[in-house]
Design goal:
Elements lengths: L1 H12 L4 E5 L2 H4 L11 H6 L4 H4 L2 H6 L1 H11 L9 H11 L3 E6 L5 H5 L4 E3 L2 E8 L5 E2 L1 H5 L13 E5 L8 H13 L2 E5 L20 E4 L12 E3 L3 H8 L1
Helix pairs in contact: 7-11
Bound molecules: zinc ion (ZN).
Zinc ion binds next to loops.
């Protein structure tokens, strides 16, 4: 691994428009599990698979059940940024990293100090009334019971992209621009199976790709460097 760390350090040293593309694996080291990788335990508690619950249709027709799952399994308000979040914020501060494109919805990159973060799937920290648009913070949702309602009577919805919903155009455009202009793409903590997010990496024009993920991905072939070690192990060694 030392050779690869050395090589990664060299790549970072000669880059100043690094884009980090991350997934659930970035936050698992902060104690936030990937809701997709849930085992039978949850399936015993919930009548539907997580992917079905976290869908637009389910939200509309079974809002209360959606929120039972959501409050229980998708909100981790005590989670703190880990070494990867911190290292990435530091790289941005050093003028090395231009943007983070994340599939995570926990806001931990911003909590670590990152400024340019494209949240492809939204954020649990933002919630809006579906009727009047009034903003509600995450504590409002966490402390609510049943279906959280606005003062106007409308249902409050998390600003999170559910299955069947499209990604935000502005976020996508920003992410694509950042990736197109990147001089180094670091992909971490994602198995690159969730579309359309994963296909964004195809916009990268640069030469070097670094892949850090526990299991292999389709992009390993194209990568200059592959780490199957944990993100924490890698990022704790590069700064
Ligand atoms: Zn309202």
């Amino acid at each position: 691994m030392d050779d690869r760390i050395q090589k990664l350090k060299e790549l970072i040293a000669k880059s100043n428009k690094i884009v980090f593309f991350g997934g659930a694996g970035v936050s698992t080291e902060s104690g936030i599990p990937d809701f997709r990788s849930q085992d039978g335990l949850y399936n015993q508690k919930y009548q539907y698979p997580p992917e079905a619950i976290v869908s637009h249709t389910f939200f509309v027709y079974k809002t209360e059940e959606f929120y039972d799952f959501y409050r229980d399994r998708m909100l981790y308000l005590d989670a703190k940024p880990n070494i990867t979040h911190i290292a990435l914020a530091k790289l941005e501060e050093m003028g090395k990293l231009s943007a983070i494109v994340t599939q995570n919805i926990d806001g931990l990159h911003q909590m670590a100090g990152s400024k340019k973060v494209y949240e492809l799937h939204g954020s649990v920290l933002r919630n809006y009334c579906t009727k009047c648009g009034k903003f509600y913070d995450v504590n409002f949702i966490k402390n609510s019971t049943g279906v959280p309602k606005c003062t106007c009577g409308g249902v409050v919805k998390p600003d999170v992209v559910l299955y069947e919903e499209g990604l935000d155009d502005k976020v996508i455009t920003g992410a694509i621009n950042a990736i197109e202009e990147a001089d180094l793409l670091i992909i971490g903590g994602t198995s690159l199976v969730v579309q359309p997010a994963a296909s964004l990496i195809n916009y990268y024009n640069g030469k070097d790709v670094v892949l850090i993920n526990k299991s292999s991905t389709f992009a390993d072939q194209r990568a200059t460097l592959v780490f199957h070690e944990s993100l924490g192990e890698v990022f704790s060694k590069i700064l």
